[in-house]
Amino acid sequence: MTTSTILLLILSVFIAAGLSYFQYYYKARNKSKLSLFLAFLRFLALFGVLLLLINPIITRKSFEIKKTPLPIVIDNSESIKELNDSNLKTDFYTKISEDKALNQKYDIQLYSFDEEFKNLEKLDFLGKQTYIDNVAKNLKQLYRNTNYPVILFTDGNQTKGNDYVYSFQDNSSVFPVVLGDTTSVFDLKINQINVNKYAFLKNKFPVEVFLQYNGNESLTTTFSIQNGNQIIHKQNVSFSAKEKAKSIQVLLDASSIGVQKYKASITSSIQEKNKINNSKNFAVEIIDQRTEIAIISDNNHPDLGTLKRSIEVNEQRKVNILKPNEIKSLLDYNILILYQPNSTFKGIIEQNKSVQLSTFIITGTNTDFNFLNQNQSDFTYKMLRKKENYFAKYNSGFNLFSQDNIGFSSFSPLENSFGTITPKTTITTFLDATIRNIETGNPLLAFVENGKQRKAYLFGENIWKWRMETYLKKKSFNDFDLFIDKLIQYLNSNSSKKSLVVDYESFYNSGELIEITAQYFNKNYELDENAQLTIQLTNKETKATKSYNFLKSNLDYKVAFDNLEKGTYNFTVKEKESNSSFSGSFEILEFDFEKQFVNPDKTRLEQLAINTAGKVYYPNQLDTLIKSLKDTDKYLPIEKEIIKKTPLIDWKWLLIFIVALLSIEWFTRKYNGLL
């Protein structure tokens, strides 16, 4: 309280006393005890009012003992039960949590974790994932700017998240209590499988398998991969005390379309404690990208053979060279290459107006340009009978697909009729035509897209020379063949835009989070942020059906599933307003993360203890751990002084006291007839 406040309080006493004296004694005729009592009441009331006006700050001091937090965090994952032969008691931590001396020194708090971090309620050791890194993240949020110890009951085998060894903050010391039998046992394990999720039909795809051996004797094992009931790969793999890990690379045939499930296994003649980690399933979706292409020409030319050889370098493509009258049905093909079309092509072009296959039109000196003017709406041709050689000029701004400049401007010129080629629609030019370095304004190679139909136009023959010149420069046809392959790939990818696009995987491992994302576009193909998307999920075997709503994120809509049983699931995504829908399916492969271990990861837990200035203990050393925490001077309780300042005006009882005094004074005066 300041000096000025004290002086004001003293002045208030004199003012209240003076007013009371003036009112009840100065002019009073009868100075009785009643007058003295009324003066005293008036003095207290006036002094109380003046106190409220001065409003002094009342300061109170108190002391609080703040204990150091001691979080006890217990691994509730399935691997704890597996590594302790299912005999582990669920109250093994109570010896620490109920110790009286520890409770006097520390603020003990109990947590459990598996995939999630939470307050301890019940231990059942049924968690499907171990996320130790998440423990570190949550403790950082709970105990900021505090030095504290952590008791971590775990086997150290993490199945999810970043490396927990370096995750705990500097102001925490971790004391891992290693759960599980640390006795080294013989074990063979498939540690990891790396494989692409997609492969093309009739191609080979690589599989990389990492094998691990736990033992001290030299050993020869059998590694195999099977598809269904058929073993498609088998080999012997040797291990020793010095060579305990092997990497196996295998090339498998993609022989059937669809999701193909495989099982990799490693076996030996020695009995193992844990055989679950001896095999691991994986799957690959085999895609049929085979493309049937018809090259239609009314005359023979070296370009035809060149195109066929370049296109068929990709084994997924098949080319037929046909006369116009040899085409029976356009439905047998994916792409048409019309080489120097004339009037004999009329039936094919008319038929394609309804089929709308993507086409690649190549013109030359034998092309009927009057026929083209009448039967296509992309270009207008004003051509003379005079022949001309056109050189290529590469357009660096081309963006329909990725293609480097392979030296187009240095290639031999292509031969075509002389004239003017004028676009009638929007085109994208890849190569411009020049005559002796003079730009003509005509395209040499251009692309047109109309709905789901795509077209390419090459205005010149003798492209066979380009392929030969590529070989002369590079001793390989690869650059030219890759250019043609990308051109064909562009024409083959002719699906129209969809309003509802759903992104998902064809298969997932059991136990992992399954996330499906979707995007919904309005008629202008703009992302609709007000769409209402739902998904109906059906288990193919049990026929059980569930419906979920998608949640909006920044760029798309998402829905996530966990704890789905293994099996095949069909799903349908719908948009409520437009009734647009998308159907698909995925498969959950059997895989249990928590049953892949035979020993606790003692090495990493020791490293964690070293990094945080802690120490590793075992369940039979809990007494030692308790004594260490009791005796250490590092975590002493802190006596904290608490100063609380309260303005007098906040005292409601003072106001009530003043009102009571004035009321008593009024009733006393009324009773004695002084009013």
Please, could you describe this protein's structure?
The protein has 675 residues and is α/β, with parallel strands linked by helices. The protein has 14 helices and 33 strands. The strands form 7 sheets. The protein has a 9-stranded mixed β-sheet, with helices on one face. Strands 4-3-2-5-6 form a 5-stranded mixed β-sheet. Strands 8-14-13-10-11 form a 5-stranded mixed β-sheet, with no helix packed on it. Strand 29 (551-552) and strand 30 form a beta hairpin. Helix 2 (33-54) packs antiparallel against helix 14. The two termini are 41 Å apart. The model has no long low-confidence stretch (mean pLDDT 86).
What structural category do the secondary elements indicate?
alpha/beta
Uncertain spans, ≥5 residues at pLDDT below 50? Answer: none
Q: How can the largest sheet be summarized?
A: 9 strands, mixed
Biggest sheet, spatial arrangement of strands? 16-15-17-18-23-22-21-19-20
Tell me the number of helical segments per DSSP (H or I, 4 or more residues long). Answer: 14
- The best one-word shape is elongated
Radius of gyration: 43 Å
Distance from first to last alpha carbon: 41 Å
* Percent helix range: 10-25%
Which band does the percent of strand residues land in?
Answer: 35-45%
Number of strands: 33
Average pLDDT metric: 86
